[in-house]
Amino acid sequence: MAMVRHDPGAATGATPVRSAYAPVLPTGSALGPPPPPHEVPQGTNVLGVLLICVADAMLLLAFLTAWWTIKAGSPAWPPGDVQVGTYIPSVITITAAMSCFSMAWAVSSTRRNDQRSAAVALILTAVFGIAVANAQWYTIARENLVMESSAYATLFNLLTGWHLVHQSIAVGALVLVGARALAGHFGRKTYDPMRAVAAFWYYTVFAWGVIMTAMYLFSHHS
Amino acid sequence: MALTETSPEDVAPEAPQEEPAPPVPSFGSGAAGNDHKPLGSAFLGVALLFLVVGGVLAVLMRAQLLGPDADLVSDRQYRSLFTFHGSYLVFLFLLPAWVGVATAVVPLQIGAARLAFPRLQTLAFWLTAVGGMLMSFAPFAGGARRITSGWALNSPVPEGAGFAGDAVEFLVLGIAVVLVAVVLAVANLLVTIVKFRAPGLTTRRLPVFSWSVLVGGSVLLLALPVLVGSLLLLYVDHHFGSDLFSGFTSSRGGNPLLWSRLFWFAAYPMLWALVILALGVASEIVATFSGRPLADRAKARAGLAAIGALAFLGWGSEVRNLRSGRYIFVIGALIVLAPVAGVLLNWLLTLRKAGEEQGVDAVRGRMMATPMLHVLGLLSVLAAGLGASAVSALDATGRSHSNYWQVGQQHLMYFAPATLAIVAAAHYWAPKLWGRKLSDGLGRLELLLIVGGTHLAFLPALALGIQDMPRHTSAFDAGESWELANMAMGLGTAVLTLGVLVFVLNVLVSAVAKRGKAAPDDPWDGQTLEWTTTSPPPPYNFDSLPEVRSATPALDLRTGAAG
To answer: pLDDT tens-digit profile of A88-110?
Structure first.
């Protein structure tokens, strides 16, 4: 019997290795390649963060609804014995606004893979963020409004504390992603995590603007 | 290089070399991994556990009202029972079950290899488990007898400060943690749908269930955070005694109407989101078992989107003592019913067209499939719910919101259809979740019990509403004319709970004990992408994807009608 040299890889007579997972589809059906399991489309992280920010804004809306509703029914807002200044909140607002510019600079530098500029911008942004968080902590400590003393005190502490938590998360995320940026992990098409952190940062600044407006600029009535 | 000498006969072309079979997903295995299918099963496992608990609580409640002057439980115990019954079933059954079904099915339907953020979904699962544990501690913690407000947590903190760490706080924190988990999971699903669709699967071609997840998920994403914020306020209020929700008489401020406004602003759209998802599942099943695409797919999708948008208009109709702008909410609560009716009519039109195209006998045969029978049961419940909701919205006296009419209306419009759709979804997608079909025999028995029990329990509730029996009454006098209807409700609740137990048994037998035959890849002649992969699918779902050129790629493959 004649023996033939068999090459399993040859096109003729070879049996393709069919995965046990492969779907059974009709002959001649148009098949495309499966989606690469580990490939993440661009903008995925940013979209995820934006959706979380939308949800978070609705939570803030619940707090502000309580603020406005209770304020409308109160004879004096804030209560007579409470004096809340606007100096430190204004400083916080200006610092937060400046951090937006340094953040935009950091994102732009990361996209251009300009390590030196990115380092300066990231450090500047982190310093602004820490300054904001510190000033908010100082505000809570300085006003020293006892939670159970009034609805105003409860909501004041809750809103300021809520933003302090967000600012701290934003700084933490910035440090983590910034370290990756400075290590050269990101490039023109792969800096999605940096954009996502920037989106959350801008949202945090926006949220402070809303809180500032509600709590300080249009707060008083008696 | 050494070559092996073989004869052609030694090679068997019909016997392809096969890789080892994929591990079959099972309950619990998903909690530790990132594969979305077992993770979805794990969500379903938690949900089914609390479905059984909630059902048992319902039986205890109804046993108290089987006859007049019963004293099985005290008034406070009765009120605690219905509070935990409602809280467990809404927050620990319906929401996690929907997250579970969507987590398991959506990536398969859109041809994705995975979720956008697999670890986030795992985190959401563990948060759900933690929230469930916190809520489970509540009945056994100090002060549990004071929780008597119903699942809407009306009059939430009558006691004021001084109960730190007690039952109210376990319950409030537990619900908040579960809701945070749902929001994270829903955001993940939305990103997956937007970013991970297969090439060619445009938004217009999205399967109806995935579309319903997109719409219902968006509603949940906007509504649930408001509830989380309100619960945090409630927690702070209770923990520190801040009087945020107490009367105007308090010198510390506060507003007694604030809670119900915040709660219903969030909870009303949440209930409609559950209906949207139920309609999405049922639409998918109707299309599959009619053997053709939906009669007017665009209108079905528009209908679901309209329900989502209108869901935010009617919340005020549920708030008592709301005077200003009430007519807007009444109109909102009414017009949201129109697109629901539109989707139901779309199903009927689809079946009629299928009968014309394929012959009535062929379609009638497919109607007997277990998932389709569940949809027919759902249709009967939804029809009753639509009628009850219309009456409820039009009731100028507001009495239907404080008597048994509301019990019947809420169960027929929201809770029962959502539950039935989850059962139908489990039957329909079991091959993809667990690699085998659920038992048809048990399925039909459970369907009979669940649908029969639902009608037997909640149609009499509407009758009690007409007779103005107050909602939270724990006993009634022999002189009242409520005896027969209450007895029917008790019997219906027992039958319904028995049906739930049969369903859970069915899932346990197929998914956990792995009894019965393995399911084929496409047991129903499905139309969407999940039916083009194996049962169960591999860890990354697809080894190859058909080219998507319409909304029904699997149907195109079978009929060769694409293009």
So the answer is: 999 999 999 999 999 999 999 98
Distance between CA atoms of residues B537 and B23, nearest Å: 9
State ipTM: 0.89
- Interface check for B262 against chain A (CB to CB < 8 A): the answer is yes
Contacts of B312 in chain A (CB under 8 A): none
CA angle B217, A203, B34 (to 5 degrees): 45
Query: Chain B contacts of A34, Cβ < 8 Å?
Result: 113, 540-545
Which chain A residues have a beta carbon less than 8 Å from that of B113? Answer: 34-37
B397 vs chain A: nearest CA distance in angstroms?
26
* Cα angle: B379, vertex B385, B387; to 5 degrees: 110
Q: Is the dihedral of CA B20, B26, B28, B34 positive or negative?
A: positive
Residues in chain A within 8 Å Cβ distance of B21 = 20
Query: How far is it, in rounded angstroms, from Cα B99 to Cα B111?
Result: 19
Question: Is residue A200 in some structural domain?
Answer: yes
Q: According to the model, what pLDDT value does residue B237 have?
A: 84
At the second CATH level, the architecture of B26-246+259-557 is: Up-down Bundle (1.20)
A68-80 pLDDT, tens digit per residue, is: 988 888 888 888 7
Query: String of b and e for A41-75 (b: at least 16 CB within 10 Å)?
Result: eeebbbbbbbbbbebbbbbbbbbbbbbebbbebbe
> Which of B170, B168, B166, B99 lies closest to B128, judged by CA?
B99
Does an H or E element contain B189, and which? helix B167-195
**Ranges of each domain in chain B:** 26-246+259-557
pLDDT of residue B4: 40
Structure tokens at A11: 């096109």
Q: Has residue A161 got a pLDDT over 60? A: yes
Q: Residue A58 and residue B262: Cβ atoms within 8 Å?
A: no
Contact B226 A74 (CB under 8 A): no
Q: Which residues touch B428 (CB under 8 Å, ≥6 apart)? A: B281, B284, B285, B288, B371, B524
Can you give the CATH number for the domain in which A75 is found?
Answer: 1.20.120.80
Domain count, chain A: 1
pTM: 0.89
Mutation target for B interface from A27, A29, A165: give the one with most B CBs within 10 A: A29
Neighbours of B441 (CB within 10 A): 10
**Cis omega (within 30 of 0) on the bond before A78?**
yes
Q: Collect the ranges in chain B with pLDDT lower than 70.
A: 1-33, 155-165, 247-253, 321-324, 561-563
